[in-house]
Amino acid sequence: MDPCNSAQDVVLCHLCETPVPPLYCDICQINLCKTCVGEHILDDSKLHIVVAVKHRQSLLVYSKCPEHTSKLCELHCEQCDIPICVQCVFSKKHKAHDAIDILHFSERKKKALQADLEELGKTIYPRYQEIASTILDQKADLKSNTEQLITALNKRRCDWHREIDGVISKLKTDIENTELNHLTVLKKEEDKINNILTEITEKISELKKEQDSNDACLFLKYKSRNEEFRRLPPKLIVHLLSFSFKDIDKKLLNQQFGSLSALSITTEKRVYTLKTPETNTPYLDDDDDELLKL
Ligand SMILES: [Zn+2]
Ligand SMILES: [Zn+2]
Ligand SMILES: [Zn+2]
Ligand SMILES: [Zn+2]
């Protein structure tokens, strides 16, 4: 019986109640007119499958029996799970089997199919959509984490460069100060020696004069200073600075500079819950959580 034929059962658009709408959403199981269909599919909380009502087969098409070609398969064998004809029921193969009316069977199957379709559109598809958007978030997190790490590394590099520059400038100051101190000591010694040299030169010319004069009086007054000049000043030994260092211990260097935590991707169980209120039981599989090592 076609429901459109009886006046009290006129099909209306689910949204605006326009009679005999040409479209139908297989997921929401509602009729829609052309005006309302756009708004309906804009709701992206679920997947909508909109079909033309005229494409929805209301009459069951029977297949021909492959064994008895003049017969149509109007029955279904429960044990063999295949369509059979009335003649098949009495055949040797299906004699002991249970045959049910194919209309009844296909109604059962259609209900199961409709339930699957609804679950796919209303729950499973949106869940996968949600997962896909989580992956987008994870990719964004990964990118921003990389940026943060690189910023931290650059900051660390600046800190280390500053420390190394500090060490170098302190050592440079030490080298320059040491040079200055040593130079002062050497200058003082140089002056002292130059003074003695002057004194010796003066002494030599004084002695030459006295020798040439042959003055007895001067000879009598003569006092030798050679004893004094023989006492040579102590030799100054300047210990020059040297720069020593240990080989760079790369392991220690890495430890001190900082290291990255181990990279890994782990998995966690997702709980699947049906959206329909009467079957609100979580669906779990038995797989253990896995750790995927990179
Ligand atoms: Zn409408
Ligand atoms: Zn829909
Ligand atoms: Zn048959
Ligand atoms: Zn059978």
From TrEMBL:
Residues 8-53, 65-102 form the B box-type domain. The keyword Metal-binding applies. Keywords: Metal-binding, Zinc, Zinc-finger. The keyword Cell membrane does not apply. Pfam families: zf-B_box. One of its GO terms (molecular function) is zinc ion binding. InterPro entries: TRIM45/56/19-like, Znf_B-box. PANTHER family: BONUS, ISOFORM C-RELATED, TRIPARTITE MOTIF-CONTAINING PROTEIN 45. This is B box-type domain-containing protein.
